[in-house]
Amino acid sequence: MSEPTGDRVLVTGALGQIGTELVEALRAKHGDAAVIASDIRTVEGHPCVSKGPFAILDVTDTASVSRLCRDEGVTTIYHLAALLSATGEKNPELCRSVNVGGTVAVLKAAKACGCRVFVPSSIAVFGPDAPKHAPQDTPLNPTTVYGETKVEGEALGLEYWTLHGVDVRGLRYPGLVSYKAPAGGGTTDYAVEIFHAAVGSKHYRCFVRPDTKLPMMYMDDAIRATLMVMEAPATSLGSSRTGYNIDGFSFTAEELAAAIAQEVEGFSCDYVPDVRQTYADSWPDSVDGSIAKKEWGWSPAYDLHAMTRAMLNGLSD
Ligand code: NAD
Ligand code: AKB
Question: Is the CATH number 3.30.420.40 carried by domain 9-173+226-245?
């Protein structure tokens, strides 16, 4: 058991792909009782529900978010509740309501209760006019509604920091690959689903073209980056504080399938692109993470082969 740190933490959208692993890491750091996992739904037997405090919380319900923060004495909020790109483009209105409305509710509660806040951004902030190796600072003209909500989230975070002194921090996560929870309705989900197929039927029908290349990251690195940026001294963070590019590694869908085939005899993949190809084509191939490296020491540990082995081992256990 860890020593309590005195922090009282709320995680929204905790039952999703990131929350499943972030809650575990935060409970190891702060103590189980100090980390309240929350989501709009519950899942029986989920470790976030069974191993510590859990609350049903809809982040679009501003009053409930503020009440929970006040009643529980929350000091830090990790705000993960959102709709991802594929789900979001199918229902733009709900995407705006959850992603932007939910973020406003969390920031208002943080301002009222004096909380620090982590709000994730995404490589989806970039549009087709951004360089394919995306720099930290470039015009952000996303062509997806999801991307627009992420640009808005970064701007809202900066506004609450500069105008109200709320300590808001965020990362532009690449596509995240993990095995402990399913991917949550994004464009980069193929890079997760392919592993489940590899240990199951040994065949995957991929919904993007074989030459589709995107920035990706193994979940262990994403959790480490999240904890690092939240632990960094405020004085080391500059104007990118609500949306740092963080580099992991990049691969095409075909390179991923080949890396898996090296480990799984008989694995095969075919490609039938759908609408998610359009979203993938609008995003960069890779990102420049040098500002995150300079300001708080970011450096990824996993490459394609280390991730492939970790995924296959995790799914075989
Ligand atoms: P996910 O879809 O797996 O989980 C999101 C969770 O939010 C779900 O459990 C869902 O039930 C919950 N939720 C939805 N609407 C809600 C509401 N109104 N109130 C409360 N909860 C609600 O998503 P994730 O992959 O864990 O992503 C978390 C955050 O990270 C999001 O902001 C996402 O945009 C960002 N992000 C994720 C990735 C990735 O590859 N996973 C990449 C870039 C950015
Ligand atoms: C998605 O594909 O929507 C997410 C993301 C990159 O934001 N994984």
Answer: no
